[in-house]
């Protein structure tokens, strides 16, 4: 077997990998731009922040009453 026949599959594999990586990079860049355009088009609505910490509500008080012996 000559050197050219042994090296050729490695080169092909390398070139296929380069082509695949280039295609993946192009897709990633295009999808990033699409997401960025969507983000700019619609402002995010402000969410009400939930109360922090422990809050004793009616159902919690009912649970505590059920625990009394």
Number of helices: 2
Described by strand count, sense and barrel closure, the largest sheet is: none
Write down the Rg.
30 Å
The structural domain count equals 1
The computed structural class is mainly alpha
The oligomeric state of the chains shown is single chain
Give the total of beta strands. Answer: 0
Strand residue content: under 5%
| Distance from first to last alpha carbon | 89 Å
Percent helix among the residues? over 70%
The average pLDDT is 75
Task: Give the overall form.
Answer: elongated
Which residues form runs of ≥5 with pLDDT under 50?
Answer: none
Topology of helices and strands:
Layout: H1 3-41, H2 58-67
Structure description:
The chain has helices at 3-41, 58-67. By secondary structure, it is mostly helical. It has one domain. It is elongated.
Short description:
With 69 residues, the chain is mostly helical. The chain has 2 helices and no strands.
Keywords:
single chain; 69 residues; mainly alpha; 0% strand; elongated
């Amino acid at each position: 077997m000559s050197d050219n026949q042994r090296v050729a599959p490695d080169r092909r594999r390398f070139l296929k990998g380069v082509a695949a990586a280039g295609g993946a990079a192009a897709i990633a860049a295009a999808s990033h731009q699409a997401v960025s355009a969507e983000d700019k088009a619609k402002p995010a609505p402000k969410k009400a922040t939930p109360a922090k910490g422990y809050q004793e509500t009616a159902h919690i008080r009912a649970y505590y009453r059920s625990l009394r012996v």
